[in-house]
């Protein structure tokens, strides 16, 4: 096998549950925001355009349970909660940065591929109707 090809053992049983927790869009985005500084719930919600209250709440609970985020109750009136990325969560910074950079570099290529695919599928359906 070529040295340019990354060889990885495929242990789906061991990796699937972990990847399901860290590879969803909200986890990546929440941890990316928290990598820069701790944030309160509403600040996260504002910065993560499109996330619902329920989705953010569930994601933060999941991240806290998995040891990627810590939650601190603030002695304010009304009581506030601040979320901070943990050392374990910070260890995802480099892989997430690589994914982010890849998406910036390749997003337009994916969009072109999607349009080409959609066009060819539409043409196939039209031919079937004729």
TrEMBL record:
Q: Does the keyword GTP-binding apply?
A: no
Name the UniProt key words of this record, in alphabetical order.
DNA-binding, Transcription, Transcription regulation
Q: Is Zinc tagged as a keyword? A: no
Occurrences of domain HTH hxlR-type (ranges): 8-111
One Pfam match, given by its short name, reads HxlR
Give GO terms: molecular function aspect only: DNA binding
Q: What is this protein called?
A: HxlR family transcriptional regulator
Q: Which organism is it from?
A: Azospirillum thiophilum
């Amino acid at each position: 096998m070529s040295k340019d090809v990354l060889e990885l053992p495929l242990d789906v049983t061991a990796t699937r549950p972990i990847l399901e927790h860290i590879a969803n869009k909200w986890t990546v985005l929440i941890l990316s925001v928290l990598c820069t500084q701790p944030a309160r719930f509403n600040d996260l919600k504002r910065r993560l355009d499109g996330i619902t209250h329920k989705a953010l709440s569930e994601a933060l609970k999941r991240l806290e349970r998995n040891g990627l985020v810590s939650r601190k109750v603030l002695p304010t009136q009304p009581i506030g909660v601040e979320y901070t990325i943990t050392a374990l969560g910070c260890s995802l910074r480099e892989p997430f940065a690589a994914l982010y950079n890849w998406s910036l570099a390749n997003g337009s290529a994916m969009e072109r591929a999607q349009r080409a695919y959609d066009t060819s599928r539409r043409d196939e359906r039209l031919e079937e109707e004729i």
